[in-house]
From TrEMBL:
Keyword Disulfide bond attached: no
GO molecular function, one term: dioxygenase activity
A Pfam family per the record: TauD
UniProt entry tagged with the keyword Oxidoreductase: yes
Record-given protein name: TauD/TfdA family dioxygenase
Keywords in alphabetical order: Dioxygenase, Iron, Metal-binding, Oxidoreductase
TauD/TfdA-like domain ranges (all copies): 249-294
Protein family (similarity comment): Belongs to the clavaminate synthase family.
Organism: Kineococcus endophyticus
Length: 331
């Protein structure tokens, strides 16, 4: 038997299409996740973690290989999950209704093969699974509910030490024009000038706080300086935000702009289809999304979004009572 996990030299491809028995097995697991993600987030997370032990071995191995060494693009897409019945599309995202679907329950189980799901009080009302639907008022903003403008390149919560390790997108309804972009730190190194490689590992960039956190944090606060790349040159991690990050010198600012040009020229694009669960490696890669044109008629792109941390303990001070939601004032 070939195993992408046991063969540590095997590359992890972006797409992992489920075989028919795997699809059936995952749907059966999803149906056994009975807690309500909105009203019982803790029980929901615990059940999902237990059920993750029963994932088909080869699916778990793909997820673990992705966790250990990343994929060839910075994302892993499990394709071909059962979506189940779709709720009436929410006009906005306060309810977290997508989290109750069969697809989102499977998404939670898969997420728990990578770590622990957490919510962030400032993002999607703190729900473990947030309804990501285009919002007419936010159409031109840099928030996840934007649509008509490109969502600029970023790593999730670049400004926060409690940033998630993974962003997980469950596609309930797709949009042919909406491409999710990803680009790895490792590939960035292939395209920068040799003399800039060491610069990227120096703390030369500051960042502001994301506007989603404006009700809780001072968005004028300047954080950092940080390096864009950290760790080993063979498997670097990254922090980037086109909207919020600034170089502290002219040369650093020019290098950030060069990074963004390289991203645009070489990024991978994934158009999500119903039944896809996309896992974004928030340490190894930066991401963004193309513009698209919603109709706001109840048939728009509908994504159930979750966040995963590998180390629940690290954010304990920010989760009163040991709950699942990271309070925004600590972000
Ligand atoms: O809509 C997408 O495909 C990605 C949005 C995004 O950046 C996110 O959910 O973190
Ligand atoms: Fe994002």
């Amino acid at each position: 038997m070939t195993s992408v996990f046991l063969d540590s030299s095997a590359a992890v491809p972006t797409f992992r299409e489920l075989a028919a028995p795997e699809r059936a097995a995952l749907a059966a697991l999803g149906a056994r996740l009975t807690a309500d993600p909105v009203t019982e987030p803790d029980a929901f997370g615990r059940q999902a973690r237990l059920l993750a032990r029963e994932l088909p071995a080869e699916v778990a191995e793909s997820l673990w290989a992705f966790e250990e060494r990343g994929s060839d693009s910075g994302v892993l897409v499990l394709r071909g999950l059962e979506v189940g019945e779709l709720p009436a599309p929410p006009p906005d995202n306060p309810g977290g209704v997508g989290g109750r679907t069969l697809l989102a329950r499977q998404q939670a189980i898969v997420s728990h093969a990578l770590g622990h799901m957490v919510g962030y009080a400032a993002e999607g009302h703190g729900h473990l699974l947030q309804d990501m639907v285009p919002n007419a008022k936010l159409a031109a903003t840099q928030q996840s509910q934007g649509s008509r403008v490109e969502l600029e390149a970023h790593t999730e919560q670049c400004f926060s030490a409690l940033r998630p390790d993974y962003v997980v997108l469950g596609c309930l309804r797709g949009d042919a024009d909406a491409a999710t972009y990803a680009f790895r730190a490792l590939d960035l190194l292939q395209h920068v000038h040799q003399s800039d490689v060491m610069e990227l590992f120096r703390p030369l960039w500051t960042t502001l706080v994301d506007e989603s956190f404006a009700d809780f944090l001072d968005t004028r606060e300047v954080r950092g300086p940080f390096s864009i790349l950290s760790g080993d040159v063979d498997d670097p991690t990254m922090l980037v935000d086109q909207d919020l990050m600034h170089g502290i010198t002219k040369r650093a600012q020019a290098l950030l702009e060069r990074v963004l040009e390289i991203y645009v020229a070489h990024r991978h694009a994934v158009t999500l289809e119903p039944g896809d669960v996309l896992m974004l490696d928030n340490l190894r890669a930066m991401h963004g999304r193309s513009p698209f044109t919603p109709r706001f008629d109840g048939t728009d792109r509908f994504i159930s979004r979750g966040f995963v941390t590998r180390d629940l303990r690290r954010s304990r001070f920010a989760r009163p009572g040991g709950g699942r939601v990271v309070q925004a004032s600590f972000s």
